[in-house]
């Protein structure tokens, strides 16, 4: 055993997985994405045990079919993902709940316990069209926080799932200021975070600081890194998130920031079991590109103790 291996901490509270996103999957159906069976084959081959559902409809939505397909490959589901625009207030509730019900039903049936909640974008991630202002009004913040608490309460009551809200580039929950305002305005017994290390760095945040400051609110992790040089260009030019991804702003670890060992160690120190799901945004990408990256990333995380 090398000295570096011997020095690696044992991260026994961290459950590492991956997701369709790391295979360039952003949409339920898209000709530029790998077929779902290939994703399942390759994520297992790369050494991962846990996966997320990805965009609803990409993987089979029949629980019996999906249970068979995942079990045959030694895979288990950690979470489903939902998209919301709760800052628009009660008018969007019925549409939101219909979407949540579909995803939560499958998530529950697969034995997972989490729903990752991604806020809607304020500019189109493909065209850069401005959809709404990048800053919320005080009234919209109230709609966002009270709506999220309502969602968390109902999801827990009806499905036994916990929601984890995902700060995300080009959404209203992005920067340190916005993330802290959101956390300070929501009930810690209902609403926690999915901390995506790449998105938080993209928006200028410090993941280790957030974990140490708001540790009780960290319910889930997405592991991701950004390329500092590309990020500087993206920031200078105001490039939207979609084109930034095509430019390579998200990179495989350990080539970018933030450094993941301190993040993982800070998460381990919380003393709770946490999923840490690798998500390297790279839509669109060549079909043969994800698997080698996934193998290297899994090897790197093992070298960190995870």
TrEMBL record:
Domain Xylose isomerase-like TIM barrel: 40-303
UniProt xrefs under InterPro entries: IolE/XylAMocC-like, Xyl_isomerase-like_sf, Xyl_isomerase-like_TIM-brl
Top-level taxon of the source organism: Bacteria
PANTHER family the UniProt entry points to: HYDROXYPYRUVATE ISOMERASE, INOSOSE DEHYDRATASE
Protein name, per record: 2-keto-myo-inositol dehydratase
Organism of derivation: Streptomyces caatingaensis
């Amino acid at each position: 055993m090398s000295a570096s291996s011997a020095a690696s901490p044992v991260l026994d509270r961290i459950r590492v997985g991956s997701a369709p996103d790391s295979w360039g999957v952003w949409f339920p159906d898209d000709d530029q994405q790998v077929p779902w069976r290939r994703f399942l084959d390759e994520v297992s081959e790369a050494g991962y045990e846990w996966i997320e559902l990805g965009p609803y409809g990409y993987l089979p939505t029949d629980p019996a079919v999906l249970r068979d397909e995942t079990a045959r490959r030694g895979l288990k589901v950690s979470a489903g993902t939902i998209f919301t625009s709760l800052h628009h207030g009660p008018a969007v509730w019925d549409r939101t709940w219909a979407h949540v019900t579909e995803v939560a039903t499958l998530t529950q049936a697969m034995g997972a316990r989490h729903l990752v909640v991604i806020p809607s974008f304020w500019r189109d991630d493909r065209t850069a069209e401005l959809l709404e202002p990048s800053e919320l009004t005080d009234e919209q913040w109230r709609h966002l926080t009270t709506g999220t608490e309502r969602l968390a309460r109902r999801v827990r009551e009806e499905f036994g799932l916990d929601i984890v809200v995902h700060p995300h580039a080009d959404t209203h929950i992005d920067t340190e200021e916005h993330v802290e305002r959101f956390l300070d305005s929501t009930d810690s017994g209902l609403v926690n975070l999915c901390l995506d290390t790449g998105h938080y760095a993209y928006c200028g945040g410090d993941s280790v600081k957030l974990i140490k400051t708001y540790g009780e609110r960290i319910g889930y992790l997405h592991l991701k890194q950004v390329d500092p040089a590309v990020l500087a260009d993206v920031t200078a030019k105001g490039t939207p998130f979609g084109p930034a991804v095509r430019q390579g702003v998200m990179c495989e670890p350990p080539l970018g920031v933030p450094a993941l060992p301190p993040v993982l160690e800070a998460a381990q120190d919380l003393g709770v079991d946490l999923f840490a799901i690798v998500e390297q945004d790279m839509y669109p990408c060549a079909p043969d590109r994800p698997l080698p990256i996934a193998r290297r990333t899994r090897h790197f995380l093992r070298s960190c103790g995870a």
